[in-house]
Amino acid sequence: MCGLLLLSALSTSARAEEGSIGGVIRSGGDGVGAHRIMLIRFGPDNDVQRTSGETNAQGEFLFENLSTDGSFTYFVGIRYQDQLHRSEPISLQDTLRRTDLVLNLDDPSAQALPAQPDAPTLQVTSHLMVIVKRNERLEVREILKIVNRGTIAFTGPAGVASDVPHGSFHLSLPPGYYDLEGIGGGLDASHIRQHATGLFYTAPLEPGEHNVMFTYALPLQGRVMMILPRRTLPTDVLDVLVEEESLAATSDLSFAGRVSVEPHVFTHFRGTDLPARSRSWLQLAQRATAFPALRVGVYGLVVVLSLAGMTAPYARGRRVRPVAAPQLQATPQQIHDLRAAEQLLLQRISRLDRQREAGTIDDANYHPRRHDYKAQLCSLLRQFQQIGEYQNQRV
Length: 395
What we know:
Elements: H1 2-16, E1 18-27, E2 30-31, E3 36-42, E4 48-54, E5 60-67, E6 73-80, E7 83-86, E8 97-104, E9 122-134, E10 137-148, E11 169-172, E12 178-184, E13 192-195, E14 198-201, E15 208-219, E16 224-227, E17 235-243, E18 247-251, E19 254-261, E20 264-274, E21 282-286, H2 296-308, H3 311-316, H4 332-358, H5 363-394
Parallel strand pairs: 1-8, 9-17
Antiparallel strand pairs: 1-2, 1-5, 3-4, 3-6, 6-7, 9-10, 10-15, 11-14, 12-15, 13-14, 16-21, 17-20, 18-21, 19-20
Helix pairs in contact: 4-5
């Protein structure tokens, strides 16, 4: 008995929360009968919902089962004699049932349906890509500044495929990327989702400017390979820096000279005013002699360049300085970093082996990645050997 009473109370409460809008549409003093009309509901986050209806013979209409949430505003609209007409804005927060609406099509104030509010727009104001060759792979560092130019948080486009995460924005990454790490820049990393096509940010993006940065690896595919940076957002400026000692680069982006981040020199390409859903191409050819692996400190300097404003240094044009010959002498801190890198590579190989044993990775991905890690280990061992020989000579 108590359960039935509770269900009855709940159903009564649910019905009480449902509103209705009704009235009559007139022209020349008579009701506009048997005519198609539309109820338009505007909500938060630019949500627009349209419900079709029809007047009866007397021009009367009724829309029921409507939300009484105060964040919704309703309009009744009709196209009559090639003219669009609308009612006054209606809220059901205080009055659950509005059944006395009169829409007089002869009234000039009833002309023109309200337009949908402009949705917030996202824009990439600057995008920096730094590409270096490290042993048997390419390492790519990307730094972006994304601006929400609207006045409310952007929740993302509707109609996203069910097999991809839904987010406020998506950043495309090249096919076959791996070892994604170093995600930061200001966005909450817990809302960043990794997908085969790239990164999704699943939280609403607040108005203003946001920084995003991350690093990933690409397998080297022969002496010459192609990278196709795809844009999911319109981009004001795209800068691509390619480490010049190891890689010869060409692109459909404009050549912007060379940038020196001592002791390394980068080939610089730049594109401006790039539309969304477009792409560029970047062709990389390995040089015969490769410089030893770049230290993470180079990335730090590039980040500083990006955050301090890249336009001025590039516009002035920087003189290319000769690349200093590599020194074999190592400080205790450099040796410690090499040891840490060695331990990290061993851990990655171990984790990769466990993934293969568990069947979570196929042979097509397992063998190239394990070969890549082994090549990096061999390079570290050669550096250790060179340091040891140098120190022995000093002794």
